Amino acid sequence: MTFLPVESPRLGLGLAALGRPGYINLGHGADLADRSVEGLRAQAWAVLDAAWAAGVRYLDTARSYGLGEAFLGGWLAARGLGPGSGARVGSKWGYTYVADWRPDAPTHEVKTHDLPTLTRQWPETLAALGRTPDVYLIHSATLDSGVLENRGVLGRLAELVASGVRVGLSTSGPAQADTLRRALAAQVEGVNPFSVVQATWNVLESSAGPALAEAHAAGWTVVVKEGVANGRLTAHGLTGRGDVPAPVARLAHEHGVTPDAIALAAVLAQPWADVVLSGASTTMQLAQNLAALRLTLPADALHDLNSPPADYWAARSALPWQ
Q1: What is the DSSP letter of 188?
Q2: Which helix or strand (DSSP H or E) is residue 197 part of?
Q3: Angle 151-162/115-129 helices, nearest 10 degrees?
Q4: pLDDT tens-digit profile of 47-56?
Q5: Collapsing DSSP states into helix, strand and coil, what is residue 277?
Q6: Where does the record place the NADP-dependent oxidoreductase domain (predicted)?
Q7: How far apart are CA 26 and CA 207, in angstroms?
Q8: How far is C-alpha 88 from the geometric centre of its chain's CA atoms?
Q9: What are the DSSP calls for 86-100, one per residue?
Q10: What are the angstrom distances between the C-alpha of 229 and each of 52, 132, 152?
Q11: CB atoms within 10 A of CB 193
Q12: Three-state secondary structure call for residue 185
């Protein structure tokens, strides 16, 4: 397959829902026609092909996304997308996938933000991707894990920076802003090794916005995840998934798009958002997400839909793996 160069949009593709048979996106189970390794690899490659053809160049995965890194690495090799192709790859460390390919597993991933985990997972990531990632993030860093004060971890990340890898963190939970601000002040021998953050921001949970603006102003790259709130802001076809607020549904009707496109357009409207991830599981979902790039919304559109962060994250924690 030959790909023609296309201008890269600000929309990226995340493989959280494509690298493993179980995830917390609403309707995820119905999106997977074949949950075998071979079936899911084929589906991941089809979505990657469609994303690349549309100009998507930022591809996000993680050590804990089942076989997400291996699927991405195999696809890059099969398509001949090596250095100089324009593909930018981000991955993450700190969670270990333990579900053994079972959607009904009692535990899907285990969080360990220590130096032994970083030491083990970095070469695993290199082997799975078949290349060095451009961006390497602490996966869902939180203040209570102590990772941002772990001198061994920070020192090793500084070594990766010296080798040409951009390092940073992803955030999760109601204290995202506090975690990010702590990372903005991190120091290793007088230098902050971090320059990238991936955070949750959507029209239901925008509390991290001011801190993300601070990171952007400091020269960091800001990547936004969960723009459709794990499927809550979607209503694909006749499945009826999600609990789309009336203002989002109204704008979707006015613009002739699906609600997810409105939700992602609201993220793209933020001046500090450098890359906004699509978490599409199917090529149809990806096409619907990409419609966001044709829309222009004001930065404060739908700001009144915010819920208290604690309430939002409690609702997210209650979502089932499926």
Answers
A1: B
A2: strand 194-200
A3: 30
A4: 999 999 999 9
A5: strand
A6: 41-305
A7: 23
A8: 13
A9: --EEEEEESEEE-ST
A10: 24, 30, 34
A11: 23
A12: coil
Strands 166-171 and 194-200, sheet pairing: parallel
**What does residue 68 show for φ and ψ, rounded to 5 degrees?**
-55, -45
Q: Which two tokens stand for residue 170?
A: 């992803």
212 three-state secondary structure:
helix
Q: What is d(CA 178, CA 230) in angstroms, rounded to the nearest whole number?
A: 23
CATH code for the domain defined by 11-301: 3.20.20.100
Count of beta carbons in the 10 Å neighbourhood of residue 59 = 26
Q: Which residues pair with 196 in a beta bridge?
A: 168, 221
- Give residue-wise pLDDT tens across range 275-315: 999 999 999 999 999 999 999 998 888 988 988 999 999 99
DSSP secondary structure letters along 118-184: HHHHHHHHHHHHTS--SEEEEEEE-GGGTGGG-HHHHHHHHHHHHTT-EEEEEE-STTHHHHHHHHH
Nearest-angstrom CA–CA distance, 129 and 113: 21
Is the predicted pLDDT of residue 199 greater than 50, yes or no? yes
